[in-house]
Structure formats: structure tokens, C-alpha cells
Design a protein that fits this description.
The chain is an alpha/beta fold. It has 25 helices and 16 strands. It has three domains: about 220 residues, 3-Layer(aba) Sandwich (Rossmann fold); about 170 residues, Rossmann fold, CATH 3.40.50.1970; about 140 residues, Dehydroquinate synthase-like, alpha domain (Up-down Bundle), CATH 1.20.1090. It is elongated, with a radius of gyration of 28 Å. The termini are far apart. The protein binds nicotinamide-adenine-dinucleotide.
Length: about 600
């Protein structure tokens, strides 16, 4: 970038230090003393051959951000040449537009006017054809400019260690900033203030003393290796949020969440299994982006969704001090998500909430839609609240550590979505189910996207499950049967929720066939698919015995019972589910008995 021009706003406006100093004292940014990152072999061709061009070819502009001395102009020029794109220096454009130097704009009109002009110039540039754009060190500090860059371009942070920056800016006496104080002091302060914000860039490249060509190739490699996560909007009457789906999102969570958090302060709730796997990665990403974080760990498993744990968590939060804009982050499966969401919904009458689901079930189902809650001795999920998250980060890389049984249980919810209302999703499952269960990242991301899109549509139409028929209640396909099986085993982990749903799906289709509502072939297709993936499809697949009277009693108690009648979701065929309360008890008994339940 224009290190030769007097563009760095802190230089022109030393007052900015004063305003931002409190924040800088809160953030501990390690000060790298090494002059050069470890040498990395350059292998751009191989990366592109193996992974495709990634963000190298998106048709978007590439915006370089970083401190003075990071090499935005020199690297930007070479990058543009190698990508066959024009190179533009934002500061030069601003000077051209203003008809005077940036120092003069500051002096004559003040910083606000400069920022306004800068934003307008950057918008004009980014709305045009793709280019490589080098920005002034302060441009990315403005939230609206960052939003603009996010919307139109790919941002690359050239992160440079202090000693290298110091060497590069040495002797640049034309920068008033550097003349005003010792360059080390100035740069240290800038690093503390700006690095947490630069960390919001899409791609970070560590630059050292390597030559321009080497660093440019590193930038291209990083772009080729990076993927923009899929974003699925959930549009509700009073709120709107994104489900962000992709690989390695936990290590980028700080950058992805910083623009959304009301305050850079969060409390992470996780469980003992997930904690050692992902918490440190998450906290590191928060530290990098200047987000203060503390964490609370609960025991894993369904028993955690209880009054006692809820009370402990809320007490811990209140004891540690919390203010209304501090966000609660759920890092874990559906148990953590439901508990943390309920804590967020109720503490101080509602704290902002973010879901980072780490099981397939929670990524495709429980994290979307805003249902939160805990269990009571009278049944599951009987105490709760609707509380929509600010965002859901579904990191499919976290599924690599998930036990296969949990993966299969989550997959049942994807099949369920297809069976309820999207025949094409079920057909996709028939084709790609095996790839999903072998954890193919592309197949996982696509499955999560399709299932979330389906759920988002259902939730948008009936956010609080108020519709008398169909609506959100359709998501209970297979649940009346499934809950009865789970309840009979005391929710003790012998039967996972998704496994119960898997069996419940075949039972719901069997009942539909028995009542003459659904073609037999559709039941055969459902059963064949589940069996082909070795998923539980029948009560007789389980190593436990169930008695008809016990299961019927659980169904009567289920909260889906209304006006004394059993409520079911049945289907006219694959993708054609509907709700009904007009189900003869005898037919339910017969279906259960035929599936392996004893009399
Ligand atoms: N709110 C809703 O709309 C909704 C919808 C469906 C289900 N649910 C609820 O979701 C819960 C079930 O969720 P679940 O199936 O995710 O169970 P879970 O949260 O108990 O997770 C299953 C197990 O996997 C472990 N785990 C989580 N992520 C892991 C990872 N990446 N690697 C290794 N282990 C990991 C957990 O510690 C736990 O032991 C139930 O309580 C159910 O009621 C809620």
C-alpha cells in the first residue's frame, strides 16, 4: 500500500490512540520477534491441481489489508499481474477524487470526511470489475468498510512481524506518525489495536523477509486453499441469521463472529468431551480477534439437560459477572446447544446467543430454529424457550472426531427432512448417503446445507409451532414412536435420539401404509435406504425388548398428545408428510407388534 504517502490515519490523528487505548490494554497480542516465518515450500500448481482454485478464482476483487510496511502495494502489484487483474491503490484513488493529498484531506476536512470519502471510493471500486485493491492501513478498521469488503471481495491480511515492519519503515521520514514518536512504540500500538480487526479478513498470510515473488506465491497458495463457507439465511419475522457451513470454521470463529457480536465478550458453554477437542482452537480464534472469552464445561450426555446443571451454569455466569451484551456460545452437540440456549434465553432476560454445533444432529437440526430447553422429570424438553441465535457456525471438520454411531444418528435427521417435504433430498440421500457417512467433507457440507435449508423453510413458516396442522410439527416425523422407545430406555444413552428417529421413520411410514394413506413402494424405499447404510430400521434391530403397553403409555404422556388423542406425523408418500390426530390406537398397536414389540 502507499507506504510512501502519509496515509495512516493514526499518524494524522494521534487522538485515535487515546480513544482506542482502553481496548488495546484488554487485548494481549503476542509480539512476534522472529524476522521470518519458517520456510514453506511453494507448491501452488500442486495445490490448484489437487484442491481447485479456491478463492483464487471467484470473480471477486481481492482486497489487501495490513499495516504500513506489510507490502500491500508491492505484493498487490505482482499479485495483480499474475492473476491478470488490474491493480488499484485505494489511497491514490482517494487523492485523485479529493484533488489533494490525504494529509491535506485530514488537515482540511477531518477524519470523518476522509473515512466517508474512503468508503465511497472503495464501494465504487468494488462494485466495478474485479481487481486487486490495496487499502490504507486504517480502511479496514471501519466496520462499514469491512462489511463492504465482505460483501463484494475477498480480503487478505498480510500479517508481518514487528521487526520486519520496523526495518521496512525505517527512514521513511515523510510519515508524520513515525516522526511523532519512536517507530517501535507507534507500531506496537498499531499492532495491538489493528491486528484483532485485520484478523477478520478471509485469508491471513504471514509475511516475513521473503522476496516479493515468494510472498505473492504464498498469497496465491493461501487463496487456493481457502473456501468461502456456505451461508444459508434463516429469515424469520423478527430476526434473520445465517447458518454458516464449511470446514475449519472453529478456528475462524472469531473472525466470523466479531462483526455480529454486540460486544467483544463471550461465555462459551461446552461439555467434557468436546472441550479437549475444540475449545482451545475456539479460544485462540477469539483471542486473535480481541474477543474476551471465558468458558464453562458441563458433563456430556442427556442428563445434563436438567435443572441442577442449568442452575449451576447460570450461577457461574452471574458470579463471574455478565452484562447484557455478552454473548453465550454453545460449543457442542444438541445437549449443549439446548442447555446453553436456555441459559441465554433466561439469564438477564435474554443474552445474545451463538450456536457452534459439533454433532451432525445438532448441525442439521437442533441448532437451527431457536428451540432451547431442558428436561423435566415429567418428560423431555418440557421446560424451555424460543431463543434464536445470532448465527450458527456448522464446522463440518468437527465431525471427523464424532463417533460413527452419533454420525449415523444425525444422518437420520437428514433423511427425515427429505421424507417430510423434499423428495429430491431423499433421492440425494439415496445417492450420497454412503459418502456422508464416510465423512466426505463436500458431501457433509452439502447434506448439512440441504437439511438446514429445509428446516429453515419450515421454521420460517411457523416459528413458534403455532400452526394447527402441519407447519413446524411436521419436524416430529418419527418422533412419537421414537420418543416412546427413548423414554422406555430412560434416555440413558443405550438408544440415541437419532437412532430412535430412524426406527420411528419406518414405523411412521408403516402406519401410513397400514391406514391406506401411502404406497407400499415408498415404505420399501425408506426401509431399503436405512438398511443399506446399516441404520436401525426396526424395533427388532435393537437388542432390547419393549412391551406394547409401556410404549403406548409413553405415547399417551408425550406432549404431542392433545385433547386425549394421539398426534402423529404420517405421510402420503416420500416428501409428503402431514400431521393428524385421527389415528386409531389399534393400528398403532398392530404396527408396533409387527415391528418386534411384544404384547
Ligand atoms: N432444539 C431442537 O430443536 C432440537 C432438535 C433435535 C434434538 N434436540 C436435542 O438434541 C439433543 C441430542 O443432540 P446430540 O445428538 O448432538 O447429542 P449430544 O449433545 O449428547 O452429543 C452426543 C455425544 O457426542 C459428543 N460430541 C459432540 N461433538 C463431538 C465431536 N465433534 N466429536 C466427538 N464427540 C462429540 C458429546 O459430548 C456427546 O457425548 C437431545 O437432547 C435432543 O432433545 C434439540
Amino acid at each position: 500500500m502507499t507506504d510512501s504517502a502519509t496515509t495512516d490515519t493514526v499518524g494524522v490523528f494521534p487522538l485515535l490512540y487515546v480513544k482506542l487505548r482502553p481496548m488495546s490494554s484488554r487485548i494481549s497480542i503476542p509480539q512476534p520477534e522472529t524476522t521470518d516465518p519458517p520456510p514453506v515450500p511453494l507448491n501452488l500448481e500442486r495445490i490448484v491441481r489437487t484442491h481447485g482454485p479456491g478463492l483464487l478464482q471467484t470473480g471477486r476483487s481481492i482486497v489487501l489489508v495490513g499495516l504500513m510496511g506489510a507490502g500491500k502495494t508491492t505484493i498487490g502489484r505482482m499479485l495483480a499481474t499474475r492473476l491478470g487483474l488490474p491493480f488499484v491503490d485505494a489511497d491514490t484513488e482517494i487523492e485523485r477524487a479529493a484533488g489533494c493529498s490525504i494529509a491535506d484531506v485530514f488537515r482540511l476536512y477531518g477524519e470523518a470526511a476522509f473515512r466517508d470519502g474512503e468508503r465511497r471510493v472503495i464501494r465504487r471500486l468494488l462494485e466495478g470489475p474485479p481487481m486487486v485493491l490495496a487499502t490504507g492501513g486504517g480502511a479496514f478498521m471501519a466496520a462499514d468498510t469491512r462489511a463492504l469488503v465482505r460483501e463484494h471481495a475477498i480480503s487478505v491480511w498480510l500479517r508481518c512481524p514487528l521487526p520486519v515492519l520496523l526495518r521496512r519503515v525505517a527512514g521513511r521520514t515523510h510519515r508524520p506518525l513515525l516522526n511523532a514518536a519512536s517507530p517501535r512504540d507507534v507500531l506496537e500500538k498499531l499492532i495491538a489495536i489493528r491486528h484483532p480487526v485485520y484478523a477478520e479478513a478471509d485469508v491471513t498470510v504471514d509475511c516475513g523477509d521473503n522476496n516479493v515473488e515468494h510472498t505473492t506465491t504464498r498469497v496465491m497458495e493461501a487463496l487456493a486453499l481457502s473456501r468461502r463457507p456456505l451461508r444459508l439465511p434463516v429469515v424469520l419475522e423478527k430476526s434473520c441469521y445465517d447458518v454458516v457451513i464449511g470446514a475449519d470454521l472453529i478456528s475462524r470463529a472469531g473472525a466470523l463472529l466479531a462483526p455480529l457480536l454486540p460486544r467483544r465478550s463471550v461465555i462459551v458453554i461446552t461439555d467434557e468431551t468436546v472441550r479437549p477437542l475444540y475449545l482451545s482452537k475456539l479460544l485462540a480464534s477469539f483471542e486473535e480477534t480481541g474477543i474476551e472469552a471465558r468458558s464453562i464445561t458441563v458433563a456430556p450426555g442427556e442428563q445434563t439437560k436438567c435443572w441442577a446443571t442449568y442452575e449451576n451454569v447460570v450461577d457461574t455466569i452471574l458470579e463471574g459477572g455478565v452484562e447484557r451484551r455478552t454473548a453465550i456460545i454453545a460449543l457442542g452437540g444438541g445437549v449443549v446447544g439446548d442447555l446453553a440456549g436456555f441459559v441465554a434465553a433466561t439469564t438477564l432476560r435474554g443474552l445474545p446467543f451463538v450456536q457452534i454445533p459439533t454433532t451432525l444432529l445438532s448441525q442439521v437440526d437442533s441448532s437451527v430454529g431457536g428451540k432451547t430447553g431442558i428436561n423435566s422429570r415429567w418428560g423431555k424438553n418440557l421446560i424451555g424457550a424460543f431463543h434464536q441465535p445470532l448465527c450458527v457456525l456448522a464446522d463440518v471438520s468437527s465431525l471427523t472426531t464424532l463417533p460413527r454411531r452419533e454420525l449415523v444418528a444425525g444422518y437420520a435427521e437428514i433423511v427425515k427432512a427429505g421424507l417430510i417435504g423434499q423428495e429430491s433430498l431423499f433421492a440425494w440421500c439415496e445417492k450420497h448417503g454412503a459418502a456422508v457417512l464416510s465423512r466426505d467433507p463436500e458431501a457433509l457440507a452439502e447434506a448439512v446445507r440441504q437439511a438446514c435449508a429445509f428446516k429453515a423453510g419450515v421454521v420460517a413458516a411457523d416459528e413458534r409451532e403455532e400452526q394447527k396442522t402441519d407447519g413446524r410439527a411436521l419436524l416430529n416425523l418419527g418422533h412419537t414412536f421414537g420418543h416412546a422407545l427413548e423414554a422406555e430406555l430412560g434416555y440413558d444413552g443405550r438408544l440415541l435420539h437419532g437412532e430412535a428417529v430412524s426406527i420411528g421413520l419406518t414405523l411412521a411410514f408403516s402406519l401410513s401404509v397400514k391406514l391406506g394413506l401411502c404406497p407400499q413402494e415408498d415404505l420399501i424405499r425408506v426401509t431399503r435406504h436405512l438398511e443399506s447404510l446399516k441404520m436401525p430400521a426396526h424395533v427388532s434391530d435393537l437388542p432390547y425388548r419393549f412391551r406394547i403397553a409401556d410404549l403406548m403409555a409413553h405415547m399417551q404422556r408425550d406432549k404431542k398428545m392433545q385433547d386425549g388423542k394421539l398426534s402423529f406425523v404420517l405421510a402420503h408418500g416420500i416428501g409428503k408428510a402431514f400431521t393428524t390426530r385421527d389415528v386409531p390406537e389399534q393400528a398403532v398397536r398392530e404396527v408396533l407388534l409387527a415391528d418386534g414389540v411384544t404384547s
